[in-house]
Amino acid sequence: MSMHLTFRQLQVFTAVAKHQSFTRAAQSLHLSQPAVSMQVRQMEEQVGLPLFEQLGRQIYLTEAGREMARYSAAITQQLDEAVQVINDLKGLSGGHIHISVATTGAYVAPYLLAAFSKLHPQVTVSMDVTNRESLLHQLAENEVDVAIMGRPPAGLSLEATAFLDNPLVIIAAPDHPLAQVRAITLEAVAAYPFIMRESGSGTRIAVEQFFEKAGIVLHASIEVSSHEAIKHAVRAGMGLGIASLHTVREELLAGRLAVLDVQGLPIERHWYLVHRQGKRLSAATQAFRDFLLDQEAARLLPE
Questions:
Q1: Which one of 69, 159, 175, 241 has the fewest CB atoms closer than 10 angstroms to its CB?
Q2: Is the model more confident about 90 or about 55?
Q3: Which residues contact 196 (CB under 8 A, 6 or more apart)?
Q4: Bond from prior residue into 266 cis (ω within 30 degrees of 0)
Q5: Given this model, what pLDDT does residue 77 score?
Q6: What is the model's pTM?
């Protein structure tokens, strides 16, 4: 039996499988829900087996659906690579970069991309700002060309290249008792409440490893999901915070926050440009990678 499937059907099927929802798939594809349902129904008719089953309000892939999802992903990747090869033959004209950026990286990535775009105005960019867990999932599923993040965990099939320093500092409200103290010990700051990122964030992991190495347990009195929330909580006097120096430049200049003079700090970290090992980079993505690595990226950031 032969199947006559269209690439559009595969796109729709992949979207439904990813979102596990006809409604969310329709929104992501900018289609109506009936149009999505029709494409899936036509595909099931060609396959001769149901691809989804509904249990309550949730839909799941059937065994046939899981097999089709595996082949659909392979076909989509092959077509993406074909498009990249054609774009490479054309040079950078019409090139596109899909980049994912860790939450903290949103404070530096726009300046890097702006400088790159001045040199290559014909290249378009899609930038997704997300947390570390989601970013690693996007890399694993080959959903993005490249990512900007802290050091990725070991054991993953990723190629990571450091290109920019990312120092972590302890911040406080300007009127905090330690704001005017010099050479503060780690034990002294650990006695105060801390506002921290959620468990699993790159910043949280680096901070906990740093204090554990010093034999100090740091207690998070409040957990938040963004650096902006940390800055506001610190300004309100709810405790101390640890943040990338890149994320607090404006507040420091305006006198709304202070960096504490703590022994052993800043915690030295780096920003990494990350992509899957063995991934064929498009001409545009390769040009962006070369751009970041061939110069001092710190010069592209505001003073």
A1: 175
A2: 55
A3: 204, 207, 218, 220, 222, 223, 224, 230, 241, 242
A4: yes
A5: 78
A6: 0.69
